[in-house]
Amino acid sequence: MSALSGVISRKIPGRPRSPTTLTAKFTSGSVIDARTGSTPRRRLASAALPVPLFDPATPLAPLRDELHAAAVRVLDGGRYVLGPEVEAFEREFSRYVGVRECVGVANGTEAITIALRALGVGEGDEVVVPSFTFYASVEAIPPTGARPVFCDVDPVTFCVTPDTVRAALTPRTKAVIAVHLFGNVAPVAEIEALGLPVLEDAAQAAGTTSADGRPGALGTIATFSFYPSKNLGAFGDGGAVTTDDPELAERVRVLRFHGSRDKVSYEEIGYNSRLDELQAALLRVQLPHLDGWADARRAAARAYERAGLGELVALPQPTPRAEPAWHLYVVRADRPEELSAALGGRGIESRGYYRVPVHEQRAMESYRPAAPLPGTEEAARTHLALPMSAALTGDQVAEVVTAVRAGR
Fold first, then answer.
1. How would residue 294 be classed by pLDDT, with cut points 50, 70 and 90?
2. Residues linked to residue 148 through DSSP beta bridges, in sequence order
3. Nearest-CA neighbor of 178 among 160, 153, 203, 154?
4. C-alpha closest to that of 125 among 175, 166, 179, 178
5. Which top CATH class is 65-287?
6. Percentage of residues in the chain with pLDDT exceeding 90?
7. How far apart are alpha carbons 393 and 403 in whole angstroms?
């Protein structure tokens, strides 16, 4: 494992920042204001230019009229569940991802559970999953009846590798969840070569590209979240499942609607998990702009590099042939919480996301692995998310780098 730069000389007690949530001001009671209204900034006396960790509102401001029109279209149409907007979004998003099928569901967590069920995962099975990920990647497994088996990650890319997955396989392994963490691309083809279906957790990777295709089109089946802070965010919860297999897609459709095809006969125990019409309509307005926003995120990452951030901390490294649309720009430092406290003193938001990996969470006690996960431990100890958005400016990048330099 590579040595880290960015050594910080003194200890400042600190706590991780609160979970990432949208903090936009509601000014008119409109659903649109939740994403396009002004975002409060906490100004500090010492801050030359406060920089938020996220800025979902600024890129949406030019789309405000279109978003309002889409919302009114749904209200006037009187169809709110599984209507024309969902059908249209499913067609458009499947074309964008590069797959034959897309099925809209209620959120990214249920998308994983339903996708695993569609793969036939059930009682007595095991699903390999990284521990360095958002809790939902693992939480979605036990409701299928299967057991999560934790694997390690490469602390440089934050993704699973064929070797870390191979080490976790057993005769009971039914599927592997490969998380495209922070927008990077896990090596799906190499993992599938191990002989098991791969479910891509692409919740953080909308807009990312690779030489093998977009996340969501690389494995057997894939899941997305449209939580408001995501690269493609709704105005509430939403999710989708994508696949090239029409039979898998049909099984997802049945499972998302109570296990029924016709509201009369019920084939199995399913879920009430549907992307609603309003969210689909608002996502359709944003989808044509996703690639532009992704390019802006990549440009912001290049600006960080040109400004010399890599001389101070270890920068996130794309996997081979990947062009991440960084959902989070996560660096590594020897004392990240001290650095975060120093940045906060200058009005720069930052956050350690997975300081306690999933396998160490109390709810996962019965699933804890016997062997250590050294890559996970390093990633958890050293990572720190710095400001990243499609609206990040050159002045903001310079302010962040200046603050990092001063905080070392």
1. very high
2. 127
3. 160
4. 175
5. alpha beta
6. 87
7. 15
**What is the Cα gyration radius of the chain?**
21
pLDDT tens string 220-272: 999 999 999 999 999 999 999 999 999 999 999 999 999 999 888 999 999 99
Within the chain, all domains assigned CATH 3.90.1150.10 are found at 33-58+289-407
Chain segment 308-322, per-residue pLDDT in tens: 999 999 999 999 999
Q: Work out the angle at residue 326's Cα, subtended by the Cα atoms of residues 87 and 55, and round it to the nearest 5 degrees.
A: 80
Start-end of CATH 3.40.640.10 domains in the chain: 65-287
Note whether 258 and 266 are within 8 A (CB): yes
Backbone angles phi, psi at 125, to 5 degrees: -85, 165
Contact 112, 176 (CB under 8 A): no
Task: Give the side-chain half-sphere CA count within 13 A for 365.
Answer: 2
The Cα 326–Cα 318 span in angstroms is 10
Query: 26: which 2 tokens?
Result: 């509601």
The dihedrals phi and psi of 183, each to the nearest 5 degrees, come to: 100, -5
Task: Using alpha carbons, select from 219, 390, 224 the residue that is nearest to residue 293.
Answer: 390
Among 3.30.390.50, 1.10.730.10, 3.90.1150.10, 3.40.190.10, name the CATH number for the domain at 33-58+289-407: 3.90.1150.10
